[in-house]
Write a structure and sequence with these properties.
The protein has one domain: Alpha-Beta Plaits, CATH 3.30.70. Strands 2-3-1-4 form a 4-stranded antiparallel beta sheet. About 30% of the residues are buried. It is globular. Helix 1 packs antiparallel against helix 3. It contains 9 helices and 4 strands. It is of the alpha+beta class.
């Protein structure tokens, strides 16, 4: 049986997954929007987000798990993971549990919307520790270029369901874009690195995908 890596507070993780049997996770604009609404409910209480992309049949996210002290949400509209501690959940399991709640909640809504049934996401969801600044930078570029790698668009700026445009914007956001931009030494270098040609197969191998 596969041993899942714990989501440890203070660490960065690449969170990713596919639809069961290559089943599409998102079919309409409303699906993408609803997933992001669910994400905003369940994930900010336990993790900061640095990059993300939603593809029709899979997704990628770069997050940093928060310390327990900031697990308490500031609104009744978001999920409170501390309630699970009172239900005899282990503290170290709370971050993974929140992601599972996100996926389960979205899957239920998706099946209801399309009048379908059955599992939507592969289980368990994939997670990989990101332990170097080089890995962080390479992963951000990989995540944002996913629509180009998979042939959906010729340029990543055309794809609406990723954090690339948010990173280059000045609009208010929960995304940790200033930290991301600083990893690249500024917006100009951030854009330049995203424009460089990369070998997708080599990156897939390096990221162990």
């Amino acid at each position: 049986m596969e041993t899942l890596e714990k989501l440890i507070p203070g660490n960065f993780y690449h969170i990713y997954n596919h639809g069961v049997g290559n089943r599409n996770l998102f079919q309409k604009t409303e699906n993408y929007e609803h997933f992001l609404q669910k994400y905003d409910k369940y994930i900010p209480p336990i993790a900061d987000t640095y990059a993300w992309v939603l593809m029709p049949n899979h997704f990628h996210m770069l997050v940093k798990v928060k310390e327990l002290a900031v697990f308490i949400p500031d609104s009744d509209r978001v999920s409170n993971p501390l309630r699970d501690i009172k239900r005899n959940r282990k503290i170290e399991d709370i971050p993974s549990l929140q992601f599972s709640k996100l996926f389960n909640s979205y899957a239920q809504a998706f099946n209801k919307y399309f009048e379908t049934h059955g599992a939507l996401f592969e289980r368990p969801f994939k997670r990989k520790l990101v332990d170097s600044i080089d890995y962080l930078r390479e992963l951000v570029v990989y995540i944002h270029n996913n629509p180009v790698h998979h042939g959906f668009y010729e340029h990543l700026i055309e794809y609406p369901w990723s954090s690339y445009l948010t990173c280059t914007s000045d609009k208010t956001t929960k995304l940790k874009r200033y930290e991301v931009i600083n990893w690249f030494g500024g917006k100009a270098n951030f854009r330049a690195k995203h424009e460089e040609k990369s070998n997708k197969d080599e990156i897939d191998k390096w990221l162990d995908l």
